[in-house]
TrEMBL record:
SUPFAM superfamilies in alphabetical order: Thioredoxin-like
Gene Ontology CC terms, in alphabetical order: cytoplasm
GO molecular function, one term: protein-disulfide reductase activity
Residue ranges of every copy of the Thioredoxin domain listed in the record: 17-149
InterPro entries per UniProt: Thioredoxin-like_sf (IPR036249), Thioredoxin_domain (IPR013766)
High-level lineage: Eukaryota, Fungi, Dikarya, Basidiomycota, Agaricomycotina
Protein name as annotated: Thioredoxin-like protein
Stored PROSITE patterns: THIOREDOXIN_2
Length: 149
């Protein structure tokens, strides 16, 4: 039974000394996903290509307030960013940035990435645009998209 408990016994001629076997274990908590609403250019750059970008998948949601499909997609992306189990196909945590295409920074980023329809969601990994979708997808399809990235 002592071996089952991970104990080692050292015996001398008179007494037995039981010493617990010491092991070191590490555990990491789930990486929390972040949501960056109405991000500006500096936030976009920091999140998509900063030091943390190596360990995360970043979804950039280009939207406008007048866009009805954008209002349908936004809660889905928010739920994904709030879900600690939501991961990319490679196991990376997922951050979400929303970019208002009618703001000055949003217009610049929209032109840079040639956004032609709303909503458009671009997935960035290690600072690179790796995949995108256009339109308001239902939640199962958005989660399927994450698994492909």
């Amino acid at each position: 039974m002592a071996s089952a408990l991970g104990l080692r016994a050292f015996k001398s001629s008179r007494t037995a000394l039981v010493v617990p076997k010491l092991t070191r274990s590490f555990s990491a908590s789930l990486s929390r996903s972040e949501h960056y609403p109405d991000a500006d250019f500096a936030t976009f750059k920091k999140v998509t290509s900063g030091s943390d970008a190596e360990e995360r998948l970043v979804l950039v949601d280009f939207y406008a307030n007048w866009c009805q499909p954008c209002h349908m997609l936004s809660p889905i992306l928010k739920r994904i960013s709030d879900d600690p189990t939501a991961k990319s196909g490679t196991g990376l945590p997922v951050d979400v940035i929303t970019i208002d295409t009618e703001s000055a920074d949003g217009m610049e980023l929209s032109q840079r990435f040639k956004i032609r329809a709303l909503p458009t969601v671009i997935a960035f990994r290690k600072g690179q645009n790796v995949m995108h979708f256009v339109g308001a997808l239902p939640e199962p399809e958005v989660r399927s998209f994450l698994q492909k990235v």
